[in-house]
What we know:
The chain is an alpha+beta fold.
Amino acid sequence: MKRQGFTLVELAIVLVIIGLLLGAVLKGQDLLRxxxxxxxxxxxxxxxxxxxxxxxDKTGNLLGxxxxxxxxxxxxxxxxxxxxxxxxxxxxxxxxxxGITPPSTNVGDPGEFAIKGKYIRSVVRAYLYHLxxxxxxxxxxxxxxxGVPTDVAIAIDKIVxxxxxxxxxxxxxxxxxxxxxxxxxxxxxxTVNAAFVVxxx
Length: 201
């Protein structure tokens, strides 16, 4: 007797194998995205915080606070002077003069980093900012990050604070108008501005 096609068992086995392969590919993509997020955090976000802390350790001064420290104000006051870190050779040269290596980046400018989230690719720009939170009535020195893919910001918040809560903790979403807010849905709001709080020892 001549065989006409596949049996149901054979088709079921093929479907199971296809399902396992698809699952492995999707899991691999998640692992790759997670590795990129950790790289962004370690080399860029934490890299700038580490540079600020090392500068303070070596000089006793706050980087970006007063003209002698790469800021804009005549005299230091304990707060960042809202200094952009991209295209800023003064800050980079100041760090190098103190033996501090500026954070590594993937776009050639220590103040910028290209990162691809699940929904958008963005070049994130960094600043040293002094922010006021009207709800907590508190002032913060922060590494201010503009244009972070929302899903990446949420992942960084989980790395830093152990949970995704954009309104509190060391890594937050700055919503403007002097307030921090929770993370929006990444499918609706593709990028956010985030603040990484810098507390000096």
